[in-house]
Design brief:
The protein is α/β, with parallel strands linked by helices. It has 2 domains: about 230 residues, Phosphoenolpyruvate-binding domains (TIM Barrel); about 40 residues, no CATH class. Helices cover about 45% and strands about 10% of the residues.
């Protein structure tokens, strides 16, 4: 929880559930660190998403199930501490079998998460929009969902199925129904490729549904309003913030290497004053009167 907010809040899972259950679609941009989370909050978002692909990429690693529960908790804690907003976290495959999924749920709750999604791939898992994904059996995934539901105190549990690519719509729908019966609160059908598929899935699975709007994937670029019209209650943009930041960094380093300095990039930079306003620098100084009040250079 942020140091600057009221600590007497309801558990994050309860607050996340309330956002899902109200009217409209819950929009969650990916926030790959605490600063991104603050910027999303200032833009007006009420919840956000922590992507496994964004976490691993920020660590210089591929999204192949390499990182651990404790490493994910480091990201959860910094994002929740920065904003206090409910956070949906990518739980990959649950980091193992049933007992591992229970451990993940408790660890994520303790770190401050409001929701988690867990998928039915085998390890090593792949991004949902890549080829040749291998799935566990529906029985095995249902057992993990049931274990996660048993372990949670308040965490909202989203079961993701990657079955549409290999088992078709019938397979994806059947798996979704199994996972709901096992205790999932919502379903995430990954890598659907047409509006017709999104609408059909929504018509056949009567539960809150999450849509994934990732760039350069198999899903066309739909808006939040279009997903809502197709029957979805949540939408994530998982890696957008990381992609924009990474492209800007790439251009910055190329500029410094070429010009011997970053001067050409200064118009595109967030100023010191803008950064301090975003992270509420002065408010933190106010918490400790022993700190001399900062005066910005040139102010």
């Amino acid at each position: 929880m942020t140091y600057l907010s009221d600590p007497q809040q309801a558990p994050a899972g309860q607050r996340f559930r309330q956002l899902v259950e109200r009217q409209g679609i819950l929009q969650m941009p990916g926030t790959h660190n605490g600063l991104a989370a603050l910027q999303a909050q200032r833009a007006g978002f009420e919840a956000h998403y922590l992507s496994g692909a964004a976490m691993t990429a920020s660590m210089g690693l591929p999204d192949l199930g390499i990182i651990t529960v404790d490493e994910v908790c480091f990201f959860i804690r910094q994002i929740v501490r920065a904003t206090g907003l409910p956070l949906l976290v990518d739980g990959d495959t649950g980091y193992g079998e049933a007992l591992n999924a229970m451990h993940m749920v408790r660890a994520f709750e303790d770190a401050g998460a409001g929701a988690v999604h867990m998928e039915d791939q085998v390890l090593p898992k792949k991004c949902g929009h890549l080829n040749d994904k291998k799935l566990v059996s529906a029985d095995d995934m249902a057992a993990k969902v049931a274990a996660a539901a048993r372990a949670r105190r308040h965490l909202y549990i989203v079961a993701r199925t990657d079955a549409a690519a290999s088992e078709g719509m019938d397979g994806a729908v059947e798996r979704a129904k199994r996972y709901l019966a096992a205790g999932a609160d919502a379903i995430f059908p990954e890598a659907l490729t047409t509006a017709e598929m999104f609408r059909e899935f929504a018509s056949r699975v009567k539960a809150p549904l999450l849509a994934n709007m990732t760039e350069f994937g198999r899903t066309p670029n739909f808006t939040a309003g279009e997903f809502e019209a197709m029957g979805y209650k949540m939408v994530i943009w998982p890696v957008s913030s990381l992609r924009v930041a990474a492209k800007a960094q790439e251009e910055l380093y190329a500029t410094i290497r070429k010009d011997g300095g970053p001067a050409a990039m200064i118009p595109r930079m967030q100023t010191r004053a803008e950064l301090y306003e975003t992270i509420r620098y002065a408010d933190y100084e106010e918490l400790d009167r022993t700190i001399v009040k900062t005066v910005l250079p040139g102010a």
